[in-house]
Amino acid sequence: MKLCFNQATTLENSNLATDLALCEKHGYDYIEIRTMDKLPEYLETNSLDDLADFFQSNHIKPLAFNALVFFNNRDEKGYSAIIAEFKDMLEKAKVLGVQYIVAVPLVTEEKFLKEDIKKSSVDVLTELSDLAAPYGIKIAVEFVGHPQCTVNTFGQAYEIVEAVNRDNVGLVFDCFHFHAMGSKLEDLQKADGKKIFILHVDDTEDFPIGFLTDDDRVWPGQGAIDLDALLSTLKEIGYDGAASVELFRPEYYQLEAEETIRTAKETTVNVVSKHYAFQEA
């Protein structure tokens, strides 16, 4: 297995150039680039070619753009904006060699029937699949374990991906999101590991289902999630992608970026290496 860094982990105490330098120093294999803030910030003073040159001359590589946000159940204006944003992401991803674009479902207080959520999600993902195919880039759908997310359990997300039935459309499996809305382990046990493109490793304080928020995340192995059960199941069903550490802990944003990146690696490797062998950088 290879190790990836998700930029949410240093959201408030670093930037893309710093994250890249420190992740290279500490032996990460991949990075998930935040496209809503960290990439635009970088491009204010650097070019896309500068970033491509960095990846060409260093070990670390770009795993994913994170993220195309709220892709389903949009009005006509919102839908058009999503398609335009995705096309732009594809062009940038091609230059950098990005493998995946993470797609996040709509989070809203408006209530949609599950059948309408599924139909919209399948329709949009099918179109995105067609757009991404010539680029060789895959779409990783990330269900969000929050009551107001339209796709908030693994079972619901997996059903949508199965209905799309495209090789370039799969899932992000985030341990926090799986735990936060009580996704079922038996649903994961029945899944095809090849449909899971990215693993987000994280942990959380022990709040009830439906009350957890991203701020509750803690270092892997220091919370309430049964990571051993999840990781052993992922191994059994054939998941063999990267492990990407993703935290949003306010206290961790008060640390020096290097301490955050170093501790994130140590805690993630300690948990994941019980089930997977990491490849040396």
TrEMBL record:
Protein name per UniProt: Isomerase
Record bears the keyword Isomerase: yes
Residues spanning the membrane: none
Residue stretches making up the Xylose isomerase-like TIM barrel domain: 20-262
Listed InterPro entries: IolE/XylAMocC-like, Xyl_isomerase-like_sf, Xyl_isomerase-like_TIM-brl
Keywords on record: Isomerase
PANTHER family per UniProt: HYDROXYPYRUVATE ISOMERASE (PTHR12110), XYLOSE ISOMERASE-LIKE TIM BARREL DOMAIN-CONTAINING PROTEIN (PTHR12110:SF21)
Gene Ontology molecular function, alphabetical: isomerase activity
Domain of life: Bacteria
